[in-house]
Amino acid sequence: MKKILKNTIFYPLVLLKRYVDLCRARKNPLKWICIRYKGETGVTLDLENPRTFHEKVIWLAFNTDTSLWSLLADKYKVREYVKTCGLTDILIDLYGVYDKFQDIDFTKLPKSFVIKTNNSCGTVIVVKDKNKLNQNACRRKLNVWLKDNYGIRSGQLHYSKIVPKILIERCLQQDGNISTSLIDYKFFCFHGIVKYILVIYNRDLNTHSFIRQFYDLNWNRIAVDDDDSESISKPKSLKKMIHIAEVLSQSLSFVRVDLYEVNNRPYFGELTFTPGFDQSMVYNKLNLGDFIDLN
To answer: pLDDT tens across 25-48, in order?
Structure first.
């Protein structure tokens, strides 16, 4: 019954909402992102006198050249940037890049891997055993993701300039049992300097639930939420990860560098220039806007 409801009611409604959002975004992208921000946070953006983190990030998105953002937000092309920074060893093994699902030869892939698209957010399929993968469902999902103009629909226009592709990478396994998912270390970098680290763990791709914690560079936990979750141990490669984040963020007003650690070794995730609004109040508590110089 749940499957029937999902296919006949829920999924069509999701597609309808995406179409409506896309129409509104195309008409006036800046107005649309302001509407989204007000709807998700209850606060009106002041882009005439930007002071908060998201006000400054959105101001940069609509008032500066973001062609570099498009290049570095592309989960495929950013790999070349990482190489030019002398950090080839942190790249996750890439098994293949495809324009469409039909090009994938599953017989040549290992038992486990990760499928993702390069031009969006959260478009990830973790395959633990390819013999159990429902390829028809996977194809349908990827076809929707490839056609979805996420950049326009979300008001993050730099994503709309990315040519959609499918990437298949090695599936990293989290050390120990401290998290049900791969721990995501997100380094907030301002003008090439790391200020704070956001940790995401116990992530569920189906429900989009997770636990988040903030730390300073000495791995002292910062109390920004009413959260009694157990603190995550300091990663063994923290010093190296901070160095990596600062190398990758040189000359950028702001970027979030996402990294992983497996077997005490750091791996590259992605670069994010426009973090979601769901943690806006936390960013304001940390005064992240103060670190972005618009002059």
So the answer is: 889 999 999 999 999 999 999 999
